[in-house]
């Protein structure tokens, strides 16, 4: 989501975007290594492989479980961590948990949990409420639960997958599922090639190797898989239940009542009626990141277009001094500071604001604090109309950063109806102190 990107490239290793490498485990896993009938591997189709993989991880009364050690080699963004995946294909459910620790700096551990139940996914990050969304289905597999092993990179992935027989990983005969393609987030563009290795006899996943570029910078990702089957009754009865994870969640505004925030919060209310061509908005989620000292903002309020599950507006609540210390007036430190971004000043009843009008094509290049500025001296500003809009409202000691993010559905990107200069003006007029 635009405006909420963490300082680590988590899209590299999100539970929904597994791209990794693993070491073959020589332990006795007899319950996972039932011999399969001899087949002509050279004639295997992708559908055949998915069918055999599903068969390999399915046993009545058992849940497939894999513990994964993770290592990302991405220069300044290198990190380590672990992932766990539980899959019960007979019930069409899966659970993923991720723990990430940066190798550089003193940033805290990042945690995520994701439940896949049929075609729905229930996503929980550190300090946030549970968000329901469509489950990702990878590379023609037809199953969200099975896809947790296949390496989805999000709804924007554009890729192709094929089968390579006669492959080998660290001397172990294998079948490789090779996926090559591109994907993007609001701040990052990826190009990648991933090889998921399956044991030639059992069709269990034994390794996966991925390399590519993130915003033209190279990266490699490595994992170690340790597979087993667990008795279903060894897990809590609600282990795959979204309600136990916290869904449906309480009213989002309750989180603000309980939060220890030394900051006046300005918002649009539980419901914002909109104006003329701008639709009504409802408060959908409040993010209170446990790592507020790292990310900078104190809270994020996410409003959806009423009657839909489409994000419409994000409000980041900052202490004004913290914002200045983090961002200042860095050219290239944010798309709003790009020389090709135009500004309109506005006087508010309780302060002042700036509306920013820029171009999406330059936003990615200036997405992180301290980033290298775009090559403004060697280029002309785009001649196309502005297509990226935002606003900063200075209200006492509080700075509200307003963004109208785009959303993705499949490979289609939909713009927020408030992503206009007039939309920003409507939102600024609607801001009010939450007492």
From N to C, what is the helix and strand string?
Answer: HEEEEEEEEEEEHHEEEHEEHEEHEEEEHE
The end-to-end span amounts to: 28 Å
The number of helical segments is 7
Q: Please state the second-level CATH architecture of the largest domain.
A: Clam
Query: What is the overall silhouette?
Result: globular
CATH fold type of the largest domain = outer membrane lipoprotein receptor (LolB), chain A
CATH class category label of the largest domain: Mainly Beta
Strand arrangement in the largest pleated sheet: 6-5-4-3-2-1-11-10-9-8-7
Instruction: Please summarize the sheet with the most strands.
Output: 11 strands, antiparallel
Low-confidence stretches: 1-10, 14-30, 364-377
Give the number of domains.
2
Strand element count: 23
Average pLDDT figure: 81
Portion in strands: 35-45%
């Amino acid at each position: 989501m635009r405006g909420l990107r963490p300082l680590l490239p988590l899209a590299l290793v999100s539970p929904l975007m597994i791209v990794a490498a693993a070491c073959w485990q020589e332990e006795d896993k007899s319950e996972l290594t039932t011999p399969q009938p001899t087949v002509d591997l050279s004639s295997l189709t992708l559908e055949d492989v998915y069918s055999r993989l599903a068969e390999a991880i399915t046993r009545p009364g058992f849940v497939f479980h894999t513990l994964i050690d993770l290592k990302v080699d991405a220069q300044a963004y290198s990190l380590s961590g672990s992932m766990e995946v539980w899959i019960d294909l007979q019930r069409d459910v899966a659970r993923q948990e991720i723990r990430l620790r940066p190798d550089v700096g003193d940033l805290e551990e990042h945690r995520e949990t994701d439940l896949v139940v049929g075609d729905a996914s229930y996503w929980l990050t550190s300090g946030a409420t549970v968000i329901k969304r469509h489950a990702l289905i990878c590379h023609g597999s037809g199953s969200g639960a099975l896809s947790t092993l296949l390496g989805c990179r999000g709804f924007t992935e554009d890729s192709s997958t094929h089968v390579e027989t006669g492959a080998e990983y660290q001397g172990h005969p294998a079948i490789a599922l090779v996926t090559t393609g591109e994907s993007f987030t609001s701040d990052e563009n990826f190009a990648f090639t991933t090889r998921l290795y399956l044991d030639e006899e059992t069709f269990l996943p034994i390794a996966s190797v991925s390399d590519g570029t993130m915003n033209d910078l190279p990266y490699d990702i490595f994992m170690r898989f340790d597979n087993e089957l667990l008795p279903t009754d060894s897990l809590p009865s609600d282990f795959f239940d979204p309600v136990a994870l916290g869904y449906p969640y309480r009213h989002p505004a309750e989180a603000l009542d309980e939060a220890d925030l030394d900051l006046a919060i300005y918002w649009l209310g539980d419901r914002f009626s909109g104006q003329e061509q701008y639709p009504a908005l409802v408060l959908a989620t409040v993010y209170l990141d446990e790592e507020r000292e790292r990310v900078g903002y104190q809270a994020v309020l996410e409003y959806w277009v009423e009657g839909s599950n489409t994000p419409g507006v994000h409000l980041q609540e900052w202490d004004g001094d913290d914002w200045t210390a983090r961002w200042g007036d860095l050219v290239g430190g944010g798309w709003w500071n790009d020389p090709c971004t135009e500004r309109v000043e506005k006087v508010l009843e309780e302060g002042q604001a700036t509306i920013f009008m820029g171009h999406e094509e330059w936003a990615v290049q200036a997405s992180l604090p301290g980033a290298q500025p775009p090559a403004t001296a060697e280029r002309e500003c785009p001649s196309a109309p502005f297509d990226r809009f935002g606003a900063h409202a200075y209200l006492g000691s509080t700075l509200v950063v307003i963004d109208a993010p785009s959303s993705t559905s499949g490979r289609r990107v939909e713009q927020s109806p408030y992503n206009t200069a007039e939309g920003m003006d409507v939102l600024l007029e609607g801001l009010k102190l939450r007492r």
